[in-house]
Amino acid sequence: MPKHRTPRVFHGIVSAAPEMLDLFELVRRVARTDASVLVRGETGTGKELVARAVHELSRRSDGPYRAVNCATLSPELLASELFGHVKGAFTGAVKDRRGLFRLADKGTLFLDEIAEIPLDIQARLLRILQEQRFVPLGGTDSVSVDVRLVAATHRSLRREVEGGRFREDLMYRVRVVPLFLPPLRARTGDVEVLTEHFVDQFNESGFRRVERIAPDVWDALLGHRWPGNVRELRNALEYAFAVGEGATLSLDELPPELRGEGPPEEPQKELSLRDMERQQILAALRRSGGRKGGAAELLGMSRSTLWRKMRELGL
Ligand SMILES: Nc1ncnc2c1ncn2[C@@H]1O[C@H](COP(=O)(O)OP(=O)(O)OP(=O)(O)O)[C@@H](O)[C@H]1O
Ligand SMILES: [Mg+2]
Fold first, then answer.
1. Environment class of residue 294 by beta-carbon count within 10 Å: exposed (0-12), middle (13-18) or buried (19+)?
2. Closest residue by CA, ligand 1 atom 8
3. Per-domain boundaries in the chain
4. By alpha-carbon position, which residue is closest to atom 27 of ligand 1?
5. Cα–Cα distance measured from residue 54 to residue 296, given in angstroms and rounded to the nearest whole number
6. Per-residue DSSP letters for 156-181?
7. Ligand 1 center to 137 CA (angstroms)
8. Is 3 left (phi over 0), alpha (psi -120 to 50) or beta?
9. Which CATH fold topology does 18-180 show?
10. Please, are residues 178 and 26 in contact by the beta-carbon 8 Å criterion?
11. Is the CB of 43 under 6 A from ligand 1?
């Protein structure tokens, strides 16, 4: 293999790019404080890894780390997941639920996809962050909590505020320190070091040992735009390990989109069904201004069903 820069490994984040090394330093510094951190970056750029690094480097590292993806839960579930409830607070509340704010006490709470939180929950969230205490749903006594917030989003919160979908006061609360993760295509030298990192990792699995990467594979990897960023690169290499064999990783083992081809033809019937579903979902998303909650409502499905369908359809 060609010799590339020597990567740094920072809490599981592998990189040799100067842009990223600066970010590691910034993470190290803000982690020491209790400031709310907002991690921004395209899908697959490592936002979850950064959130965890903030926790691990903080004085809260002995305390709990809790995470929730705000886009995958219905508003009702999200509210009781975050704030908890007492038994009998509503139909189906058969026992007390502590809620993530209490479970993350003295630790860190990671709110993934924070832009997807409905406005009424945003109001409650703001109150907790200001007062560090709250009353669980159906309860009478307020509980105080000491929680450090880390949030992530692939959207611009500023734009969400302008569109009336996100509270401005909450935006200022959650992004005291914004951290921006550059897309893979903007990280100098990282396609090379990450390729080698993942090849080493898959070699460990013992199913195949790749000793060499063909030059036209490097051309394809370096010429790709990587819309799915590091996750896409990892998946492409996992694909190559799965479909190919032998010590040389060759071009025909890469996924079609990396070989400059479209995805393989699907059977006609399946294609039209999938296509119809895809079009319906895209239309609903357009009508709801891109908000998954609104689109799910229009389609008459739960957010988690919509989330799963979008995944399946590669949306
Ligand atoms: N620099 C990196 N080095 C090693 N692995 C990485 C790096 N960045 C991301 N990964 C891996 O890529 C995958 C995606 O990372 P992660 O889940 O943190 O992305 P994300 O920004 O949260 O994406 P999404 O917005 O889709 O949730 C994970 O398996 C993660 O371990
Ligand atoms: Mg994520």
1. middle
2. 46
3. 18-180, 184-258, 269-312
4. 43
5. 33
6. -HHHHHHTTSS-HHHHHHHTSEEEEP
7. 34
8. beta
9. Rossmann fold (3.40.50)
10. no
11. yes
pTM: 0.82
| Contact status, residue 298 vs residue 284, Cβ threshold 8 Å | yes
Q: Counting atoms of ligand 1 from 1, which one is nearest the CA of 20?
A: 1
Q: What is the predicted pLDDT for the residue at 308?
A: 85
Whether 18-180 shares its CATH topology with 184-258 is answered no
The ligand 1 atom nearest the CA atom of 50: 18
For the domain spanning 269-312, the CATH number is 1.10.10
Q: Which of 180, 230, 238 to mutate to test the pocket of ligand 1 (most atoms within 8 A of CB)?
A: 230
Cα distance between residue 216 and residue 232, in whole Å: 19
User: Given the DSSP bridges, would you call strands 143-144 and 133-134 parallel, antiparallel or unpaired?
Assistant: antiparallel
Residue 228 CB–ligand 1 contact under 6 Å: no
pLDDT on residue 49: 98
CA nearest ligand 1 atom 23, residue: 44
Per-residue pLDDT of the chain (315 residues; tens, 9 = 90+): 556 788 999 999 999 999 999 999 999 999 999 999 999 999 999 999 999 999 999 999 999 999 999 999 999 899 999 999 888 877 777 888 889 999 999 999 999 999 999 999 999 999 999 999 988 888 888 899 999 999 999 999 999 999 999 999 999 999 999 999 999 999 999 999 999 999 999 999 988 999 999 999 999 999 999 999 999 999 999 999 999 999 999 999 999 999 877 655 555 555 566 777 888 888 788 878 788 888 888 787 888 888 888 888 888
**β-strands 8-10, 13-15 pairing:** antiparallel
Q: Degrees (nearest 5) of the Cα angle 264, 269, 274?
A: 70
Task: Please tell me the distance between residue 47's alpha carbon and the centre of ligand 2 in angstroms.
Answer: 6
User: Which residue, by CA, sits nearest to atom 30 of ligand 1?
Assistant: 46
Q: Give residue for tokens 């819309």.
A: 227
Tell me the fold of 184-258.
Helicase, Ruva Protein; domain 3 (1.10.8)
